[in-house]
Amino acid sequence: MAGTPWTKQTTVSDWIFEENLRGFLRVAAWLVGYAFEEDDWLAIRAGIEPTDDGAGRWFDYELAGRVTLPVALARSDPDAGTGVVAVRLNLSQLNDYERGELAMLTLVMQHQPGPAIDVPERTH
């Protein structure tokens, strides 16, 4: 739904630079109270290898913490080497604040490629 604020949607589709994928997922996990670990990252890296959003090949993953954030990922035009990953998020369990935070995070990940954006490990 183009033009509709994220706070009014239950599912959104967008894109980020692939170099930012790990940082994006770590911050998204932190927002929902999920401890994103190395095993998560290894599974996601392997899972997105054969993906292609144009061909409808997506990789699904859940960040399940205080609430669950289902995430679908697919490389955009992988043969052209665009370095872009399409992202679909199911926001149905998130409140308006969390939805707004994910919208801002996505915008940041679209403007600065590179692995420098990250969050510290969560301590409980």
Report helical residue fraction.
25-40%
Please trace the helix and strand order, writing H or E for each element. EHHEEEH
Structural class comes to alpha+beta
Poorly predicted sequence stretches spanning 5 or more consecutive residues: none
Oligomer: single chain
Question: What distance lies between the first and last C-alpha atoms, to the nearest angstrom?
Answer: 37 Å
Task: Give the topology.
Elements: E1 11-17, H1 21-32, H2 38-48, E2 59-64, E3 68-75, E4 84-90, H3 96-111
Antiparallel strand pairs: 1-4, 2-3, 3-4
Helix pairs in contact: 1-3
Characterise the protein shown here.
It is a single chain. The protein has 124 residues and is of the alpha+beta class. The protein has a four-stranded antiparallel beta sheet with strand order 1-4-3-2.
How would you concisely characterize the structure shown here?
It is built from three helices and four strands. It has helices at 21-32, 38-48, 96-111; strands at 11-17, 59-64, 68-75, 84-90. It has a four-stranded antiparallel sheet with strand order 1-4-3-2.
Descriptive key words:
single chain; 124 residues; alpha+beta; 4-stranded antiparallel sheet; 3 helices; 4 strands; 23% strand
